[in-house]
Design a protein that fits this description.
Elements: H1 6-12, H2 15-27, H3 39-50, H4 54-86, H5 88-102, H6 110-117, H7 121-145, H8 149-157, H9 162-197, H10 205-214, H11 218-246, H12 248-260
């Protein structure tokens, strides 16, 4: 059965950003506030600010650190989460420790990581990892715990090899939860990318925004904020495309169940 609201959602999806931009444009058109310049002035400044050398000098290094930190966090989260979720004893042993470290905000760790890792790229990657790993880890644990016991027993009866059981049963069954954690981790990673670059950095989007703010280059500062928003949108679109391909089996299963219901 075709979803009658799908067409309306597809129509409204681009309408909200256009409405927000139009509202911003109109409310700031005659602005004389130094800290709230007209959007037209900000957009005129955008190209010359970011596409005359800063894209390769600041944006690409930020994205590289984000990518490395994010991938390390996903690998750690899935690996540890699978082990913890599969063992009731291990889960009972490490759960209090996980709750303790999860409650510590990642930005608080920046000065500590600077002491041990210095002020280079290693520190910035570690900051991203320290925040991104938790949603992936906790969602993986819950996904592994929620696996159907009948499927587990079936795998034992057919004597599946441990590797086949891990890939085709555990990881595949927990993949929707893992994807949900990875989606949360991506937005957290962008935030931590900016925060890590505000401490003792020499390049990056966060560093550049702070430099603009300190030199009172307000339109350029706003272009940096817009750049961060565009990075978030592009990464979200890429993630959704990958997710829809990897979880196509799960989407089809849910649609078939909805049709039967």
């Amino acid at each position: 059965m075709r979803d009658p609201g799908r067409g309306l959602r597809l129509l409204l999806l681009p309408a909200l950003p256009v409405l927000l931009v139009a509202t911003w444009w109109l409310t700031t058109a005659d602005s004389t506030n130094f800290f709230w310049p007209p959007l037209e002035q900000i957009l005129r400044t955008f190209g010359e600010t970011w596409f005359t050398g800063r894209f390769t000098a600041d944006v690409l290094p930020s994205l590289a650190r984000l990518l490395v930190g994010y991938l390390v966090a996903v690998a750690l989260g899935v690996g540890l989460g699978t082990a913890i979720g599969s063992s009731r004893t291990l889960r009972a042993l490490v759960e209090p420790v996980l709750e303790f470290f999860r409650a510590i905000p990642s930005p608080v760790l920046v000065p500590i990581l600077m002491l041990f890792a210095g002020i280079g790229n290693e520190m910035k990657v570690l900051v991203i990892v320290s925040g991104c790993v938790w949603p992936v880890l906790l969602n993986t644990v819950e996904g592994v715990r929620a696996l159907d016991e009948v499927l587990r027993d079936t795998a034992r009866c057919y004597r599946l090899r441990p590797r086949s059981r891990l890939v085709h049963l555990v990881l595949r069954g927990a993949s929707p939860q893992i994807a949900a954690g990875a989606r949360q981790a991506l937005s957290i990673g962008i935030i931590l990318m900016v925060i890590s670059e505000m401490f003792a950095a020499s390049n990056g989007v966060g560093f550049t925004i702070i430099q603009f703010q300190r030199s009172f280059a307000i339109p350029q500062m706003w272009t940096g904020i817009i750049m961060l928003g565009l990075i978030g949108v592009v990464l979200s679109v890429i993630f959704r495309a990958v997710e829809s391909r990897v979880l196509s089996w799960y989407t089809g299963l849910r649609m078939s169940q909805r049709t039967k219901g």
